[in-house]
Amino acid sequence: MANNTQAGSPSLLKFWPWVVIPIVALILPQIFSSGHSINLLSHMGVAIIFALSYNMLLGNTGLLSFGHAVYYGLGAYVAMHVLRSINDAGGEGLPIELLPLVGASAGLGFGIIFGSVSTRKAGVIFAMITLGLGALVHSSSLMFADFFGGEAGLFGNRTQINSLFGIDYASSVSVYYLVVVWTLIAAILIYLLRKTPLGWMANAVRDNPERAQFVGYNPTMVRFIQFALSATFAGLAGGLFVITDEIVNDEVVGQLQSGAVLLGTYIGGIGYFIGPIVGASLVTILESSLSTYTEAWVLYFGLLFISIVMFAPMGLVGVVHQQYLAWKAGGWRGNGYIRIYLLAAALIGIFGLICVIELSYHYFRSWDPSAPFVLMGVTVDATSFLPWLASFCIAIIGFGLMIFHAKPILARLTDAKSDGGNA
Amino acid sequence: MLDIIAYSILNGVLYGMLLFMMSSGLTLIFGMMGVLNFAHASFYMLGAYFAYTVGLATGFWIALFLAPILVGVLGAGVERYGLRRVHQFGHVPELLFTFGLAYVIEELVALFWGTVPVPYRMPDILDFTVFTMAGLDYSAFKVFILGVSIFMFAGLWILLKKTRAGLIIQGSLSRPDMVSALGHNVPMVFTLVFAFGCALAGLGGVVGGIQFVTDPGMAFMMGPIVFVVVVLGGLGSVPGALIASLLIGILQTFFLSINFSLAGSIGTLGIESGGFFGTLWHMEATRLAPVLPYLLLVLTLIVRPRGILGKREA
Question: How confident is the model at residue A46 (pLDDT cuts 50, 70, 90)?
């Protein structure tokens, strides 16, 4: 998290991601032009806003929330109701481009209401209150069928509504560009908010609330404002979700949604602005593509999350950044091969583990375990002994080499050189 | 009417004691290590599944003892090789670790035992009706559950209050540094308490899996309610957990078994069944039951964060 509090050097070169990423985002639909991948890209945009808003709490203010989907979901529901009333009025009224603002204001409203009761304490109490509020809203979504649309959910129509620029949103590509614009706006705003005195005070409150109070700031107030702003952006993401999917049901306020944003943000890295962006994109891609390849994707997901928590609490971006810093400081000199060897051994171990998991899923889950199935390009029989032996051996050799051979060598080499940044 | 109330109380006490079997371990773990174990209900689930599988080979009575021990050993492994490693990063990663663990355990259970419920049944010797009240049977197994839970509470109380081990555990609850300075191996105590807490949850699963249903969703269903109990009772307080368990058990059973709505008992008073207050006014109590625990949780945390008998805030 040290990176978070570093004052950035005002160099124009530092702003290259702000130019490159939007250009990539604009080009992407030309490359992945199928309807499915365009939808996936739109969902990524929504997930990125949601994750960035979540990181305003977790990364910047140190507040761990288990119920952030409440603001996302309620924003989506309010936006959906507005969309439906516009549909009923024959499309007159608010233009579709501004619909996410409805979600944002709903998020702000509920953020103020729920934030006022939950931000008095940080830490575990805050986490528990958000968990309780999340469960409360989710379980009451089936009670108030008028607002939440019961189990079927609510539908809207994004084509029966005015557009500011006369764009027809029947095609998913134009929806995607709308998502890109909103994602960019939200990302810039969230980034700028980090640079305001409020953003710095949020970091101070995260690191040491008592000293922040001594300086003259009220930690509760700082938490509350951050919470309300974060809920606003979550609501914005919810409003966008209404446009991309045209349906909301009780799942959008559910605990699984809250868990998913937590997982994505943390996997990406909470100490970096770009962490949630990477994490949310990765999680969205994995969720949609991995689930078509393997039944075990939830397990992979959980294992990935646990290993990040245990071995790389800075997240994926943090790992890359640390290696980059070490490389720049010359920490790689003379041990670059060992680092690559370590990585290769780890990958071999992971490969073996994946083979074991896939074999287990085939053996325990399918109707006929002895039916041949394709594992990593090889057709094997899960009831025979050989594939199991091979998979276990690969996993054990890979992890064994990593832990008992590569790691000690690397440790010896890096210890010899003062503190050249460690893996 | 009186019959129904008595029967509801009996069922509520039963449900409450099951909740207590889970929450006592959780509250001990929290009070000692400051870790809110999200995977606690997963250990409850593992207890049920282990008892089912072991029971197929050895019968119920041996499984009743063996399954909690297995769960405890697993819990010790989780604490030793997972939590202790994460501990150095602070409390939030600890919470996240157990959060991820809950996902993984659920998936593994679904992998090995399938996503549909397993036919985990009570032993034949307990499969008879003890008495009938208001036309409803009260089975011997329910009495057995009550017996097990009361036995467990008594055992826990004696362990904590009357033995030297309990003295060290209580000391570590409030002043781990001082206990450590006196020459006790506090990390070892942590591991043992974590394992013990998991074993208690496993024991809850052994009987709870029969009373309810044994499927991979049972942890997700029970998890939040156990949190409510622990917070309401006061984090770290075992007697508080008992009171809160019984309170929530009885309250929820009551709400489920009586047919009551404000509009039905007081009158509609001209309030239409629409809008926020209208819907609430006409809401039947049975539909309020799932919301009730969370409402209690939020209210407790706002009004009295240390719960009924807790000595300190989280």
Answer: very high
Question: Where are the domains positioned within chain A?
Answer: 14-313, 329-416
Given this model, what pLDDT does residue B118 score?
82
SS3 B157: helix
Which residue range(s) make up the domain with B278? 2-303
Q: Across chain B, which distance is largest between two alpha carbons, in Å?
A: 71
- B108 close to A (CB below 8 A): yes
Are B224 and A135 an interchain contact pair (Cβ–Cβ within 8 Å)?
Answer: yes
In one-letter notation, the amino acid at residue B118 is V
Query: Domain A14-313 maps to which CATH number in 2.60.40, 3.80.10, 1.10.3470, 1.10.1660?
Result: 1.10.3470
What is the Cα–Cα distance from A92 to B160, expressed in whole angstroms?
69
- Domain-embedded: residue B10: yes
Residue B312 lies in a domain: no
CATH value at residue B223: 1.10.3470
- How many angstroms from the chain centroid is the CA of residue A332? 31
Q: Which residue of B has its CA nearest to A141?
A: B291
What are B230-271's pLDDT values in tens digits? 888 888 788 888 999 999 998 888 887 776 666 666 665 666
Domain-located, residue B310: no
| A128 contacts B301? CB cut-off 8 A | yes
pLDDT recorded at residue B260:
64
Mean pLDDT of chain B: 83
Residue A8 has pLDDT above 50, yes or no: no
Q: What is the ipTM of this complex?
A: 0.84
Taking contacts as CB-CB distances below 8 angstroms, the residues of chain B near A55 are none
Mean pLDDT along residues A147-171:
81
> Which residues of A fall within a CB distance of 8 Å from B101?
302, 306
Q: Which amino acid is at B114?
A: G
Residues 15-44 of B with CB under 8 A from A: 34, 36
Nearest-CA neighbor of B98 among B112, B82, B118? B82
Instruction: List the structure tokens of B6.
Output: 């008595």
